[in-house]
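Journal club side-thread
Mid-discussion, someone asked how the predicted structure for our own chain would compare to the paper's figures. Pasting it here so we can look after the session.
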Amino acid sequence: AQTAAPTEPPPAPATALAQPVTAAQPSPTPPPTPDAPTSSASVVLFAGLGLLLLGGLGFILTRRGQ
């Protein structure tokens, strides 16, 4: 029982950490919609907001580390 207990817990946190990363990652290529410029603009805007959020989180984490 002692040898089995330490090996079981690690998989659960790993999967929990993997889920937000995959969910946060946007699709690398936006859907092709040449006739709708507003949709492409919104995609660019959301991508910029995501980059700003990631940059802010990274900045806070680096400052907190110091």
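Post-session note: Confidence is low (pLDDT under 50) at residues 4-24.
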